[in-house]
């Protein structure tokens, strides 16, 4: 599984949405991505990539695209 | 801080200003029980003659453990909690106050306040080692008082209820009135809460028992009963 697939799967499984929906998703676009849902998403991503994100990054993580930028700081390469 | 008198018990309640979680204190002579501690300078006056404290954790979430170190610095203390809770609070990844930080940032952005900065200065995540743990249940005698601990799944993996003298139940975020039970956190489980926890609580708790919740005001179990069933909302 590529990093992009693992990342996308964190969204699709946490929020029970399709890949197409995940790829354009922003915070609070759907009911499931509220502050509580955000905790589930963060846990899924941290587990998928075996990382521990900084609190500031967790706060800034407000869309699928923004999350990719943030994860680059943790050496997650989405070309792999 | 407010006080609730239940028969011969006087239980103090302090509300954590950042996220409205409840800390409860029971003081007797030179010792005290503290449920879900947070930093509160008013508590020190109350504990003036206290030489040792017992910290009871209803569950592992940051808003319910934030004051553990603060009290440990001031009093010889021991921690009692569920085994799963103890594993969680021993893990640096798990004790980060990320939900509180996330909510405070949202509120600051909307209201122009600066609570997140203040909170970050006050709260330093720490790991803890519990002194007494249990898997399903545990009985502890505290002076003349009996504490009956029991696992309560659904809100979190390490949640428990604690009945004091068969009169009062500290239920953390597993039983609240006028506030939804959140079962969507990692390791929460709505199905387990509905199918196992609620029927168990309906048997375990008495209708005239005072419930001391993790958020919101204390209430009688009967206040949330309908047709012999506990009636709660979910988020």
Description:
The complex is a heterodimer of chains A (80) and B (235). Chain A has 80 residues and is an all-alpha fold. Chain A has a single domain, classed as ACP-like (Non-ribosomal Peptide Synthetase Peptidyl Carrier Protein, Chain A), CATH 1.10.1200.10. Chain A is 60% helix and 0% strand. In chain A, helix 1 runs antiparallel to helix 3. In chain B, 26% of the residues lie in helices and 30% in strands. Chain B is globular and about 45 Å long. The interface between A and B is medium-sized, with 14 and 16 residues.
Secondary structure elements and pairings:
The complex is a heterodimer of chains A (about 80) and B (about 240).
Chain A: H1 3-15, H2 19-23, H3 35-49, H4 55-60, H5 64-72
Helix pairs in contact in A: 1-3
Chain B: E1 2-6, E2 9-15, E3 22-28, E4 31-35, H1 41-46, E5 52-56, H2 62-65, H3 68-74, E6 77-82, H4 83-89, H5 98-111, H6 115-122, E7 132-134, E8 137-142, E9 145-151, E10 160-164, E11 168-172, H7 190-204, E12 210-213, E13 219-220, E14 225-226, E15 229-230
Helix pairs in contact in B: 5-6
Strand content of chain A: under 5%
Query: Per the principal axes of the C-alpha atoms, what is the gross shape of chain A?
Result: globular
Shape field of chain B? globular
- By CATH, the topology of chain A is Non-ribosomal Peptide Synthetase Peptidyl Carrier Protein, Chain A
Highest-level CATH class of chain A: Mainly Alpha
Radius of gyration of chain A over all CA atoms, rounded: 11 Å
Q: Alpha-carbon distance between the termini of chain B? A: 28 Å
Poorly predicted parts of chain B: none
Overall structural domain count of chain A: 1
Q: List how many beta strands of chain A DSSP finds.
A: 0
The CATH architecture name of chain B reads 4-Layer Sandwich
CATH class designation of chain B:
Alpha Beta
Structure at a glance:
Chain A is built from 5 helices and no strands. Chain A has 80 residues and is mainly alpha-helical. Chain B is an alpha/beta fold and 235 residues long.
